[in-house]
Design brief:
By secondary structure, the protein is mostly helical. It has 18 helices and two strands. Bound molecules: zinc ion. The site of zinc ion has 8 residues, from loops. Zinc ion (ZN) binds next to loops.
């Protein structure tokens, strides 16, 4: 019931978007395409394929750049200078060898000058980025109502550019996807998830998530806090609006959890300092770096918290559902998701270390799940974490039993879990809670 209210409220925005005055222009374009003798005709006529093709090409070039970041960032090298060159003989690549995907295939994975191997991961990153970017562009532009959020539609309306709303939704999803690709491959290659990526995203993700309707529809469970329904004497149900009270409650929870996290630092120092044995003990500088990361996370949440309170104050519930209410729902969802995203792996790491005497969770994973949580929400984070554990045991345990290969880091499993949770959270939730309905 509550969920359907949220979706119904979002519909007028989408109606306005889809009935934008471009139909005549679209028909003229299709008519022109009909007269074109080239094979581009069918692709243009089938407008669904156009975003896919643009996304594939754009994604291949971006994948080539992500490959440079994956290779250079963990080594502290500049990502712009020097230009792409062979790691062995140092020859700068010709432009045609640098063309994504085809460059690697044409050279069959070897340097043109000295024959040194170009790693297969270069090709893999370009292919994965091209495919992911193409599919996201296709999804957003062919099913705009599933992903375009009220905030994007209001912004698009404001500047009179109807295509801006799906573009913003696509950008938000793409930024997250590209960050996940870099995190996965740096973790596989260097056993590190770069802070340079996780820290800015902890600040930005709550705002990026506002551009995706997926998180809004998901956030409908939060209406329990914001809307209290009451049955009148004649049986009619009216909504009692308590947006200000609900926002203050959520903001209070966020602040309380932040204070508790900071207060847990001495306990973490004691657990890691005394329990970890072996060749890699927990040193004082490890603790200082971790404390700094936690302080950054707490500070990074504050702009979203401020906007939540401002939106609650700005919302006018008498007028019915409005943009500030969507901001309140979306930001609450993102803030709670971020907090669960930090707290869950942090708590598992602390108690795992205390119980087993070895470092049970990398802090790169904690920092990454914190920003992913803003997109996934608290329930999505729980699904992500448990799916990652299942994937980890399905793949990791047989690999260790066979004795081959090194230990795979947890980051890639978390990324796989997050993508599954993002795509199938509705289905997972229905399956889990079917018994309670
Ligand atoms: Zn070479």
């Amino acid at each position: 019931m509550v969920g359907s209210w949220c979706l119904v409220a979002a519909r007028p925005f989408h109606g306005a978007l889809l009935s934008g005055g471009s139909r005549a222009a679209r028909q003229a374009l299709l008519a022109a395409a009909g007269a074109c003798p080239l094979p581009c005709r069918s692709a243009l006529q089938n407008r669904r394929m156009l975003p896919l093709m643009i996304g594939l090409v754009m994604g291949a070039f971006i994948g080539s750049f992500l490959g440079v970041i994956i290779h250079r960032l963990p080594q502290g090298m500049s990502i712009v200078r020097p230009p792409s060159h062979c790691g062995d003989c140092g020859t700068v690549l010709r432009w045609y060898d640098n063309v994504p995907i085809f460059g690697w295939l044409a050279l069959r994975g070897r340097c043109r000058w000295c024959g040194a191997r170009i790693p297969l991961s270069v090709l893999t990153v370009e292919l994965v980025t091209a495919l992911a970017t193409g599919l996201i562009c296709w999804w957003v532009f062919t099913h705009p109502a599933e992903l375009t959020a009220p905030l994007g539609i209001v912004l698009a309306d404001w500047v009179h550019l109807p295509w801006l709303a799906p573009v913003l939704a696509a950008l938000a999803l793409l930024v997250a996807m590209w960050a996940l690709i870099v995190s996965t491959f740096t973790d596989l290659e260097h056993l590190i998830i770069p802070d340079e990526l996780s820290k800015p995203l902890q600040l930005l993700a709550p705002f990026l998530a506002l551009l995706l309707v997926g998180s809004m529809a998901e956030a409908s469970y939060l209406l329990i806090f914001y809307v209290q329904s009451q049955t009148l004497a004649d049986g009619a149900v009216v909504a009692m609006w308590t947006i200000g009270g609900g926002s203050l409650l959520i903001a209070g929870v966020v602040v309380l959890v932040c204070v508790l996290l900071l207060a847990s630092l001495p306990f973490a120092r004691w657990v890691y300092g005394t329990r970890i044995r072996g060749p890699f003990p927990w040193r004082e500088e490890d603790h200082r770096a971790f404390a700094k990361g936690l302080w950054w996370f707490v500070i990074a949440l504050q702009p979203a918290l401020l906007l939540l309170l401002l939106s609650a104050w700005w919302s006018d519930p008498v007028e019915g559902p409005d943009l500030p209410l969507f901001l309140v729902l979306g930001l609450s969802h993102a803030l709670l998701g971020s907090l669960v995203g930090w707290c869950l792996p942090y708590a598992v790491g602390l108690f795992g270390t205390w119980a087993f005497g070895r470092n049970a969770m990398g802090y790169g994973d904690v920092k990454m799940l914190a920003w992913m949580g803003a997109f996934l929400g608290p329930m999505g984070v729980l699904f992500t974490f448990f799916l990652a554990a299942i994937y980890g045991s399905l793949i990791g345990i047989p690999m260790r039993l066979c004795g081959g290969g090194r230990e795979i880091p947890f980051g890639p499993y978390l990324v796989a879990g997050a993508i599954t949770a993002f795509l199938f959270h509705g289905w997972l939730q229905d399956m889990l809670f079917a018994g309670f309905a």
